[in-house]
TrEMBL record:
<dbReference type="InterPro" id="IPR036388">
    <property type="entry name" value="WH-like_DNA-bd_sf"/>
</dbReference>
<dbReference type="InterPro" id="IPR000835">
    <property type="entry name" value="HTH_MarR-typ"/>
</dbReference>
<dbReference type="GO" id="GO:0003700">
    <property type="term" value="F:DNA-binding transcription factor activity"/>
</dbReference>
<dbReference type="Pfam" id="PF12802">
    <property type="entry name" value="MarR_2"/>
</dbReference>
<feature type="domain" description="HTH marR-type">
    <location>
        <begin position="1"/>
        <end position="139"/>
    </location>
</feature>
<dbReference type="InterPro" id="IPR036390">
    <property type="entry name" value="WH_DNA-bd_sf"/>
</dbReference>
<keyword id="KW-0238">DNA-binding</keyword>
<protein>
    <submittedName>
        <fullName>DNA-binding MarR family transcriptional regulator</fullName>
    </submittedName>
</protein>
<dbReference type="GO" id="GO:0003677">
    <property type="term" value="F:DNA binding"/>
</dbReference>
<dbReference type="InterPro" id="IPR039422">
    <property type="entry name" value="MarR/SlyA-like"/>
</dbReference>
<dbReference type="InterPro" id="IPR011991">
    <property type="entry name" value="ArsR-like_HTH"/>
</dbReference>
<dbReference type="GO" id="GO:0006950">
    <property type="term" value="P:response to stress"/>
</dbReference>
Amino acid sequence: MTSGVPAADERGWADLADLVLALGQRVGARGHPGLTGPERAILRHLAHRAPATPSRIAAATGLQRANVSAALGRLQARGFIRRQADPADGRGVTVRLTGPGRAAHQLVRRECAGLLAAAAADDATGLDAALGLLGRLRDGL
């Protein structure tokens, strides 16, 4: 065992990682028509952690900085984000969602919620525990 995880737990953590990746692929393909995966990731990030610099968005989403810049340009052209001078450093910019950006993000969330609820046959047993664990994992990474 080279992962540092106790052998008794390693399989469970690996299975969880496989499930999270598979769900992410399936759920990530859904959402607002006309938005790319990087654009949805940026909206999701900004909905929870705005304002943010493009570099921080890239680091948080795992996207390449050039891809973030291109996606930000498309989102700004659609009126979903607003860029402004960074108050801490006038040379940089920060990015925020606009009203239409928040609405687009909420549309994606509603569609994804419906997709997952239907897949679980509307049985929310264990949902709070799953949210707690996944939130701790996100924060720990």
